[in-house]
Amino acid sequence: MDNVQRRATTRFGLAILAVAATLLAACGGGSSGSGSGTTSNPPASTGSCADCGTLLVGVTDADGDFVSYSVDVQSVTLKRPNGATVETLPATTRIDFAQLTDLADLLTVATVAPGDFVGGTIRLDYTNAEIFVEKAGLIVPAKPVDENGQPLGVVDLAVDLSNRDHLVITRGRAAFLSLDFDLAASNEVDLTQNPVVVKARPFIVAEVQPVDEKDLRLRGTLVSVDTTASTYLVDVRPWQRRDGSFGEVTVHTTAQTTFEISGTAYLGAPGLAALAQQPAGTLTAAFGTLAVQSHQFTADIVHAGDSVGGQRTDAVHGSVVSRKGDQLTVKGAFAVRRDRDAAFQRTVLVNVGADTKVLKAGSMQVLDATAISVGQSIVAFGTFADPPAATASTTPPTLDATAGRVRLDVTALRGSVVSAVAGQLNLKLRAIGRLGVEMFDFAGTGVTMATDADPNNYEIATSTLPLATLGAGEAAKVLGFVRPFGSAPADFEGRTVIDRRDLPAVLGIGWGEDGTAAPFLSSGNAGLVLDLHNADIGARHTLLVGMRVIDLLGLPASPTIVGADGRTVFGLWTVGHVELFSSFADFVAELNLRLSGGEKVQALTAYGSYDEGTSTLAANHVAVHLVSD
């Protein structure tokens, strides 16, 4: 998993991938599967199997301001030009989007008759949503509310595709559609209230050719293995579902595919042979890429058996924020248990010992518990023990991994450059994973107390990675692994460095609940020029460029938003509806028409590359919220 991260936006989304029937072992509709508290939907529309296409629906979340964002996805429906609809999700599925920062997760497989689709609807249920944000160094719950401050329930989000980019499914050919649920544009977080309030105005972007791409995780139960073809077949079971059947998919492997099966590492064909020894129904999770042209999913990494939590062993996913002896404190954790539904945990204590086996994702190397240090992203396998009921509200649960295993996952650092010389990059850390750096206690990470990791001057060994483009004070993101506990410096082994050029700027501005009829000094094909003297501008008027938060009102010139080169998508939101455009000119023309018709702009969010010299944001994505009197 050392490949360069393909998405570096501040939004999360749902990706729908429609591919030809050759991807599946058979052209069958997604069958109903339900778990505790779920509802079943009618199966997808079909037509004869000889003519059908196949729709793979995936879900993903990009870097954002939420530590956890769990909601129930009740349905994903596609709409044809004549108004007919096709339901693609067989059962309600609860998903914590914040756990899917760098991956897309396969949600369902549906059989669909050929034809055009002009849009669709996703139904989300916030009734029992669990949303957590970071406030003053703590993880705190947040209450989702609607435009009027009332608790959110079921929300239908209708999306119209750009008239230039309808989804077309034809026999024997691939199609692709991506739906992105934009967190930054959709949510307004008020940290001053107790509990914290999140005002949600859901905004979905749909793209036939998505602006951003991600690797795909495919989780499901093993059906069969074909060692001759270097493939295996799984029955999809999305996210952390304990039951249900969401369609079958063939996973392709190569000589470079790494396997971890019940704690044993393999490379290539021996791993597939070991997988063939597992019984049908064994949980698997594959991480890799979907090649649209060849219609196949190829795994870079495969986990199976006791290396996938929830079936035969308990597991916790999260970041180690401190270590005291053989006890790890893990925050922002997701607990996967054998005897109940998976759930977010603010804190879990993990006990390790001399018999704890430690593996590194994508590696054949076997380590011991000394390899686990502060900041490392881990998956720990063992047995959960809940605290006594009397102290459950103040005492975190404990996972006993003293006779279990820990997998070290790729860890993401974000910060600003202190210095960069050949072989070493020093950062002033802002965050590790989804957590702010103030949540981490680095005591014990160094050979001596004096060499403990310093978050203001965090030392990253970069080997031969190019660092010439990194200037002091500029933003950077690094992917890799934390050095073993008690061995710093260096503090971290960098595998991938992402500089400011690949970290998007984010512009956000609002004009209050009533909006404004005149948000721009000018609006045309040459760009949208914001009017920074508009009296209706509210509390939100920022431009995030790397580590810097710039007050728009302090800029010497009004910023101009233009369409970027390459793939772009722009959207106009009204309550319950989003209209999308792939052409900046079409987007601006419709926006001007709406404004001339009496609608007002309530908020605008744009992502892209910012040129400080010209005060211009070349945007590949713009979301505009409109309101009517």
- How would you state the average pLDDT, rounded? 85
Integer tally of domains: 5
Structural class by helix and strand composition? mainly beta
Q: Segments where pLDDT lies below 50 for 5+ residues?
A: 1-37
The DSSP helix count reads 3
The radius of gyration is 24 Å
The counted number of beta strands is: 45
Mind summarizing the main beta sheet?
A: 18 strands, mixed
Overall geometry comes to: globular
This entry's quaternary arrangement is single chain
Please state roughly what percent of the residues sit in beta strands, choosing from under 5%, 5-15%, 15-25%, 25-35%, 35-45% or over 45%.
over 45%
Distance between the termini: 50 Å
Query: What's the helical proportion of residues?
Result: under 10%
Outline the structure in words.
4% of the residues lie in helices and 50% in strands. The chain has 629 residues and is mainly beta. The chain has 5 domains: 12-213, no CATH class; 216-307, Beta Barrel (OB fold (Dihydrolipoamide Acetyltransferase, E2P)); 314-409, OB fold (Dihydrolipoamide Acetyltransferase, E2P), CATH 2.40.50; 411-502, Copper binding periplasmic protein CusF (OB fold (Dihydrolipoamide Acetyltransferase, E2P), Beta Barrel); 505-627, no CATH class. The strands form 5 sheets. It has an 18-stranded mixed sheet that branches. A 5-stranded mixed barrel has the order 16-17-18-22-21. A 5-stranded mixed barrel has the order 23-24-25-29-28. The N and C termini lie far apart (50 Å).
For this entry, give a set of tags.
single chain, about 625 residues, mainly beta, OB fold (Dihydrolipoamide Acetyltransferase, E2P), 5 domains, 18-stranded mixed sheet, 3 helices, 45 strands, disordered N terminus
